[in-house]
Amino acid sequence: MKCPNGHENPEGVEFCLECGLEINPDYTNQDELKDDKSQSHPDNSQKEEPYNLANNKSKDDIKNAPSINAIKVSLLNNNEEIVKTWVLSKFPSYSVGKVSNKGGVDIDLSNFEGGNLVSRIHGKFYKKDTGWVFVDVGSKNGSELFNGNTREQLVSNKEYPVKPNDVIVLAGQIKLLISEA
User: Is residue 106 located within the same domain as residue 36?
Assistant: First the structure.
């Protein structure tokens, strides 16, 4: 089965294993897939809807939300517009940081504004039975979690549950919006 970008995937997979796009089994013509603008590839240059930090749900809404298997992590620019999105679903953990001669990361922020302030491996997302968590793995410039009206400085190597509409701020510059995939 092919995703909208033409990547081959095994039968029954909901999201592309290569690019993370949702696979729609109703598509039969692969040419239509490539022309369909309703699916947005994480690497394209189309801008998505602006996200406003003030529109977050209340803490109680987020705390009582059901556990989700897949999340989207979206990079926000200074105008709170989404400029890049990664879907986290297949693997139990994903690293966040910047590529160096020592290796790569799953969510590479090196080519984005503020990416120079992010540590090589700044943090990690982990999939747990109860949902997703984020851990700052001892970054030089720190991380914060913004959920609703609360902004919390993260303690290194401690797990922090993340829910849709949370924003993780890395090195005081990089904003990552969490949403359901």
Answer: no
Scored b (16 or more CB within 10 A) or e, 36-65 reads eeebeebeeeeeeeebeeeebbeeeebeee
- The answer to whether residues 142 and 135 touch, using CB atoms and an 8 Å cutoff, is no
User: What's the token pair of residue 127?
Assistant: 């999939």
Q: Round to whole Å and give the CA distance between 177 and 86.
A: 10
* Spatial distance between the Cα atoms of 108 and 116, rounded to a whole number of angstroms: 11
**Which pLDDT tens digit goes with each residue over 80-127?**
999 999 999 989 999 999 988 777 899 999 999 999 999 999 999 999
Q: Are residues 29 and 3 in the same domain?
A: yes
Enter the pTM of the model. Answer: 0.64
